[in-house]
Request: fold
Amino acid sequence: MKDIAKLAVFGGQPAFAETLHVGSPNIGDRAQLMARIETMLDRRRLTNRGPYVEELEQRLAAFLGVKHCITMCNGTVALEIAIRALGLTGEVIVPSMTFIATPHALQWQEITPVFCDIDPQTMTIDPAQVRRMITPKTSGILGVHLWGRVCNTEALQEIAGEHQLALLFDAAHAFGCSRNGRMVGNFGDAEVFSFHATKFFNTFEGGAVATNNDELAARMRLMQNFGFSGLDNVIYIGTNGKMNEVSAAMGLTGLESLDEFMAVNYQHYLQYERELADIPGIALFRFEPGEQYNYQYIAVEVDANRCGLSRDAFVEILHAENVRARRYFYPGCHRMEPYRSYFPNAGMLLPATERAVERFMLLPTGTAMDSQSISRLCGLIRFIAENGSRIHVNLLHRTQEAQLEAVSIAAKPKKKITRTPRVS
Ligand SMILES: *Cc1c(COP(=O)(O)O)cnc(C)c1O
Reply:
């Protein structure tokens, strides 16, 4: 592309005929999945701890190297059950830089999420800030391994130990990731995964809690099945958090292709790293060397001072080109209801979060993407960033024209307006 007037946002042809999505699902071997579903129908076991759920839990526990892995109907209910089983009350310290399900799982049980800032290097909860947020009402810390970067688990464990707090992790982004060679699933009191369709490993909808604590595992198993301990014996308050057999069949099938999903994501990540290098104002979010990651999120930071375009303008331009780049997690949980009303000034304590939610955009990856599309997308991003200031001016003119047009239509419907000349 040589001419900015050809960008789709100015009326040109979109760069991609088909829309590219962030979080397009990874699907394993279809024939295997269909065969499993046939078997499931033949044996008429659709849910309630069927053989696929049993097998999936064993395989997941072996993969994670953890004692217990309890599958759940989704990640949010898994969080709610883990929070309840840990006996959390009062206040729990949590980052605002996360998906809304994290604080909602607390607030749903009338536990106050106390938003804590992130370390801008790692995008995970900042242990020094956690310390400052502890009050007599604090019962736990809920860290989030954002985009697969694992929290500073040692520092958080130390704080939790000192203050006798529960330590839980929302590991929805970190299935298959490690810290100091240890797999996620083994940190804190428990870790919660989401196997939602948009996650790198999916069971359509689903989730799991991993823990090495026998007693906690037993309690969560009761809670996920209404508190039933035998056929007619309820010994606890519970809910319905069970995973069904068709989801478990999808999970077993996905696990067989997990290495391939990871390899594809890693190749895509390396390609983005190569092809986005040295673009003014564009920086790819990095990972620690020597650790295992799933690379399910390609997060890019846009510096408007260097490329002349805000992240929001960038996203608008990409959307016009049929690239559904996403602003994860804009505008930040503390700016969403009910938290915005409860804590109108929370942002004052969250400078790194407020900066991040304005600067990052996520780009498509996964098995639905191919290297040719990534090349074209990176070329497009380079063109946009290198011509950022001129594009910015034209976007302003476009807005002014639209406003003038609106005014002139309202005032004198017949008369033609004079247009501001475009820069190109
Ligand atoms: C997806 C996600 C969840 C919720 O998981 P569901 O399975 O969709 O309920 C929770 N936390 C984070 C960080 C997520 O990305």
User: Anything to note?
Assistant: The chain has two domains: 4-20+258-404, 30-256.
